[in-house]
Design brief:
80% helix, mainly alpha, 4% strand, two-stranded parallel sheet
Length: 246
Amino acid sequence: MPLREHLLELRKRLFLAACGLVVGAAAGWVLYEPLLAALQAPLSAAAQEQGKTIALNFTGMASALDMKVKVSLFLGVIVTCPWWLYQLWSFVTPGLTKREKGYAYGFLGAAVPLFLGGAALAWWVLPHAVDILAGFVPEGAVNFTDAQGYLSFVMRLVLAFGIAFVSPVFLVGLNMAGVLRHETLAKGWRWAVLIAFVFAAVMTPTPDALTMIFVALPICVLYFGALGLCLLHDRRADKRRVAPTV
């Protein structure tokens, strides 16, 4: 395709992705009240369990509106991730071969549920993280948590877990592209396990080791799953390379 057609195609895909985000944000706007209640639930549970006053604090006149817009956009990004990821792949796939297109759609089909699975795990971890952090509030003190800061904390947690779960897909993609061999992944499995547990320890500031294991174990399983797929691909590629031509 000429450069002009590439730019027109890019504009089309960006427009369609933006339309999907607008629809998702509109759904988030309608569902703002129950979503905000779900976001506040860990704070309320920690306050009730520890007998403290913990609540969201809106510091400015427009902060409540700003919070509603950000929550709506955040939900829109999460809900419409299959749509905007599809638009991204639709822009890339015209330049790929038939086999590469199959790989691309396979990556997309794996990335979406893994990202959503990571986000779901982060939502499960959130109440535990809030409970342990609220425990540092001194007796008799009041914790009015800034609404914007709390939302940023939740967003970082969800995105961090989503990216961590999707990272094995990128490892397989690098292997398919011939950039990364399975031997490299096999040699670095100890570092991968260590990084997974360090990530779990940092992102789940809870005193019990069981929660850390529940978070780190799926990441380790995904890494070894990626290693297995890379091993199979490298063996097939090596056989094709050494096979005699007729």
